[in-house]
Amino acid sequence: MMDMENTPQIMSDCFPGQKSTIFPGKLKIFFGYAAGVGKTYAMLQAAHQAQKEGIDVVAGYVEHHARPDTLALLQGLEVLPCREIDYRGIKLKEFDLDQALQRKPQLILVDELAHNNAPGCRHTKRYQDVEELLQAGINVYTTVNVQHLESLNDLVSSITGIAVHERIPDRIFDRANQVELVDIEPDELVKRLQAGKVYQERQAKQALQNFFTVENLAALREIAMRRTADQLNRTALQEGREKSAKAGEHILICLSSSPSNPKVIRTAARMAEAFHSGFTALFVQTPETKELSGDNLKRLRSNLHLAEQLGAQISTVYGTDPAVQIAEYARVSGVTKIVMGRINHKQNPLIGKKSLADRLIALTDLDIYIIPDHQPLYKKPLGKFHLPKSHFTGKDACITLAALILSSMAGLGFYHAGFSESNIITVYILGVLITAVSTDGHLYGAVESLFSVAAFNFLFTEPRFTFRANDPNYPVTFLTMLSASIIASSLASRVKAQARMAAQKSYYTELLLESSQKLQQGRTEWDCLRLTAEQLSRLFDRPILYALSKSGQDLSFRAEPSDAQEVLAQLGTEEMGVAKWVQANNKYAGATTSTLPDSKWFFLSVRGTQGVMGIVAVPVAGYSIPDAFEKNLLIAILNECGLSQERIRLQEERGKEVP
Q1: What top-level class would CATH report for the domain 521-657?
Q2: Which of 79, 243, 539, 547 is deepest in the core (most CB within 10 A)?
Q3: Regarding the domain delimited by 7-238, which CATH topology (the fold level of the hierarchy) does it fall under?
Q4: In the chain, what is the straight-line distance between the N-terminal and C-terminal CA atoms, in Å?
Q5: Which residues, given as ranges, of the chain have pLDDT below 50?
Q6: Cβ distance 386 to 439 under 8 Å?
Q7: What's the predicted TM-score (pTM) here?
Q8: Where in the chain is the domain with CATH 3.40.50.300?
Q9: How far is CA 504 from the centre of its chain?
Q10: How far is Cα 172 from Cα 85, in angstroms, rounded to an integer?
Q11: CA 78, CA 416: separation in Å to the nearest integer?
């Protein structure tokens, strides 16, 4: 369990009033292309220089690797004790964020920016600790290697053959106020390894045989230099000293559960960086994607999180044909380039279906970039089609049986009235359509198709009331009837699924518009929060907690619906600690996030232009996890609430000024 008990006190100590009065700290990154180039050494030298200039410097966490030169530079600096965490019987030493916030120096050193924190820390990643330090107004010196940048992960892996698991979003690197490239010649680094100045002898030998070859180091060095130049160029653009952005470019990628999707996302992110363009990650929700589970669902969520980390705007569309949905979205959104992966699977020659890439090329005139998929080849079994899961219910079984009986009775009436067999077959196909529309899934329509053929054979073919057929043309008739029935059933089920998704999208749109209209009618800030919680309760079908955030006032949560007061008892000291952290940092935390993820609630700040206007808590334990589209809708509603609260607060302040 994460240590959240001290969070309320720490937050009140560090942020006694509104956080908007605190200026963010500055970030300096000492950047290298490999371990051993001297990043930590350069950082410590810079810290001593800052100390000589009268700056209050503290070493928050420095990984010295028992190197004598590094240990010598630590002397003369105040070093914060590490926080010890017991993990599976092992004592792990981690950076103590809370102690650093209480000490609050002017400058703090936090080594290894890409480090994954041990379970039990407030954040899962060290770069999140650094973000909190910066938000508290503390300047930070830190170190990172090029292979730890998220967008370069695939590129570095292709060069070295080694996958790096500790990574940081590129936005952290790009937000740095200063990046200092710590550089030495690859040959010199190899000599340092051989001399035991980087790793111990055994580790050094393994490193020289794998990662630390001269060729690898030279390639990584070039990538590091280019990335540093890109960061400097981005800083120049932001400061308005130069304008080289290519206007009108908009890059689109498609989110999926494919193992190769992360490579596509990273490639598109690098392209967006190069073009200084918009970057959208589109998820096409189909009946099949709604049934994802296990590893597929986990990969999809991971890919979505990766796209968010790399700065993509997440969008969701609904439909049964991904190619058509992607092409239409690209047309109305002004997309200029589509980046996608090539499916590296052997197509069955008897089915010969066009790939998604081929269909998009036919449907659009945009630039389409195909990223190869080097996953192992596999061949899909012939005739194996994926059908959405159907669950047997008595109601659907009765509808299927009733449709068969009514079709047979109508057919008998037609038979005695002298109508041809083609008219009777049409009646049975109508029964199949009624079954497909009135039942859940494809199963009942398929069963109705089979039984309709059997009933037609039994009741209307000679010899009647047997399952034999004397006419040699009847087998062709049966096969045609069965095929037509199954196709009609499939089309009807697809139309029904599309109608359901269209209704869901319409409901979401109506909910957003209704929220905006209701918030305009709110007379107090509490009214705005209550109306917002009411809409969110409808959206997620669960109770919602909300609290007003004002300087000098404690958070006091209320529940919506109002009769769900028992959920307030679930907010213990630890959960209130998460809420206060969200209030102080104006960020999201709790369940489904990487900050205090052991919480059972998802806490969000209601943001205004002047800071946090309120806190909303969404329970996650025991409920379904909100998908990407629902989260986007949630944030949109909260933003509307924040604007309405600011309007009311401004009117109140003006009213006080009037004599």
Answers
A1: alpha beta
A2: 547
A3: Rossmann fold (3.40.50)
A4: 54
A5: 1-2, 4-20, 241-247, 350-351, 378-388
A6: no
A7: 0.73
A8: 7-238
A9: 21
A10: 26
A11: 102
